[in-house]
Amino acid sequence: MDIKRMVSEIVERKKADGGIKQVYFVGCGGSLGAFVPAKTFMEMEARDIRTGLFNSGEFIHSIPAAFGKNTVLVVASHKGNTPETVEAAKLGRELGAAVVGLVYLKDTPLHGNCDYTVDYTFGPGKDIGGEKVIEGLKVAVELLNQAEGYGHYDDFYTGVSMINGIVSRACRQVEKRAHAFAEEYKDDTVFYTMGSGAGYGAAYMESICIFMEMQWINSSSIHTGEFFHGPFEITDDNIPFFIQLSEGRTRAIDERALAFLRRYGKRIELLDAKELGLSSVPATVVDYFNHSLFNNVYAVYNEALAAARQHPLTTRRYMWKVPY
Description:
This protein is of the alpha/beta class. The chain contains 11 helices and 9 strands.
């Protein structure tokens, strides 16, 4: 559905209830991580609208007290059948919220429990400007713009128009280093990813969805700002780190962590958003595009690593195979 028209309908519907006061994002796994930019956008840019990001299972057992008729609930499920997310959407409607679902497949259980659904692109050759992360951002930006006003609305859509080209060039740029990375790290059994700000979700997704789920490698994501409050103690010459340097407001946090790693560690793989071309996006909104750049560049590394380890990304032991 057209997001601008959808949001216009939601804003009109909610006038009788006193307007939109909360926008919550709910999902599991990669869908949860994909909402980090949208949630961060609302935190940073909204003056009066409250926001939150919740795992679907936790949400259905612990609904925020503020949740109700003044709420827009945005959920995501790639196949539209994640049980916890379907239940979250159902509960949202029962409690009077306007429920928006981001789904890739058609005619799913999630469609039947949402007021509106937004399709996104996925797979080889996808338009990055229409992927799940960006579609979630579009919903957040449109909600804020229509409910409160957003001064950098045009800049945001300039970024949307640019991101596909930026990512395509960046993926080509890292091909050789991705293969070198795969050969260097194919036998490692632990890996840490690091990032901050709106891009942190990409580090989180790489850790839980790729290293742990798809490659069976022990992993954890570390916020670069939290690195010096415990995690840096595991740094040595042998531990591998994959660190993101974002463009925008949190870059200094990432640079501080990288400086420490370079002083006390040796096995560091760096993704620098500036080097990869993201600085061409308007500075007013560049923070919110880090995730899409990193997440899609990671995919080049992931394919190379899977090939080097002879462990296809489709391999599972438990997911979709046993009751859980």
